[in-house]
Amino acid sequence: MKLIGGGPVDRWTRLLLAVVCGVAVASVYAGQPVLGPMGHDLGVPVGSLGWFVAAGQLGYLAGLVLLVPLGDMLDRRRLIAAHLALVAAGTGLTAAAPAPWTAFAGLATAGAFAVVVQTTVAYTASVSPPSERGRNLGAVTSGVVIGILGARVAAGVLADLWGWRGIYLTLAALAAVLAPLTLVLLPSGDRPSTARYGQVVRSFGVLFTQPVFLSRGLIAFFLFASFGTLWSGMALPLARAPWHLDEARIGLFGIAGLAGALGAARSGRWGDAGHARRVTGLALVFLLVSWAAIGQLPWSLPLLTLGVVLLDFAVQAVHVSNQHTLTTAYPDRTSTAIGAYMVFYSLGSALGAAATTALFDAAGWLGPTVLGAALTLCALTTWAFAPSYPQAPTARPPQTRGARPKTTAR
């Protein structure tokens, strides 16, 4: 394994970090396939089922602002372990919930500390040599994609075996096991900064004035809005004529998406070779092509499957390239940069999820298809006008009195 400033990160370290990301993000998304049984069991009316999802997402957004910046102050290894333990507590509370408010509290807690994903990404970037940063980020980020897409497939299987509570009990057990493992197996590092918490949180907002950060953030906003448009709306037409697919068969499309996303895991190596900008543009072109295939859903399931593979390949490739660019541009505050970047992710995902159902109701599958393609064109336009190379941030990380400012090589 690699110590700070040491040799390469081995494959077992990458695997452990990817599993951490997968389990954490699954705690936010695992409930989507079982909202009906959860509501029936806890006495929540159909019109309020969306609050099960909203509770986790709101907790996640709060964690991005309030918890992720801690990674620029504290030992990230210990922070990862502590956040995993609290994810276990939140999912355990959800599994044992006797009433709706208890489940909401558990989901919000799990969502808030699921930002361990961003701390893990920042940790990976900090312990990776520059020549391997993109490769390691690609491998670790693949765990996020597995968590998001795989959770939908696994949740259906576990719900059939043990009910919806079994899903959260399984996640609680996995997070509880991973917490001590990270303490034992991951190398510790020095505190990245001596700044105070208030200073680091205030620096969070300064990033939104930086051209490199803002352009990559806007690309992420449109990218994940497009992603949310597909995955939040696709089940609606597949369950209707002419396909009439049940939930289990619809869930199988998650495997197709998983194949595409994992195929892009190596895209980080292209970033290591200095091609992050080119990879982003090419992947966005693939994303646009994917919507041409996805638009054929009412007539062709094979073309839909091809489109799903292309879309998830493109999303993963752009996401890894974005993170590679930001961790290179802001090496002294990678946690804050990744946390702020993921605000765009959250807002984009929410927009796509909310808009696709309304458009499908008004215009059929044509509505979400046009929206997904339009969002992709917005991302391409942003990419075209974005800075060509990562530039040194003009706003320096917070410094304590007497500390010498650090500089970023141009």
Overview of this protein structure:
- It is a single chain.
- By secondary structure, the protein is an all-alpha fold.
- It is built from 18 helices and no strands.
- It has helices spanning 11-29, 35-42, 50-66, 76-95, 100-113, 116-127, 133-162, 164-185, 197-206, 211-233, 235-238, 247-251, 253-263, 267-272, 276-294, 301-329, 334-363, 366-385.
- Helix 7 (133-162) runs antiparallel to helix 13 and helix 17 (334-363) packs antiparallel against helix 18 (366-385).
- The radius of gyration is 20 Å and the shape is globular.
- Mean pLDDT is 82; it is low at 1-7 and 390-410.
Shape: globular
Number of helical segments with 4 or more residues: 18
Radius of gyration: 20 Å
Q: What gap, in angstroms, lies between the N and C termini?
A: 29 Å
Largest sheet: none
What order do the SSEs take from the amino end to the carboxyl end, as H and E? Answer: HHHHHHHHHHHHHHHHHH
Write down how many β-strands occur, each being a DSSP E stretch of 2 or more residues. 0
| Overall SS class | mainly alpha
Q: What share of residues are in beta strands?
A: under 5%
Q: How would you state the average pLDDT, rounded?
A: 82
Helical amount among residues, as a percent range?
A: over 70%
Low-confidence stretches: 1-7, 390-410
Helices and strands in order:
Layout: H1 11-29, H2 35-42, H3 50-66, H4 76-95, H5 100-113, H6 116-127, H7 133-162, H8 164-185, H9 197-206, H10 211-233, H11 235-238, H12 247-251, H13 253-263, H14 267-272, H15 276-294, H16 301-329, H17 334-363, H18 366-385
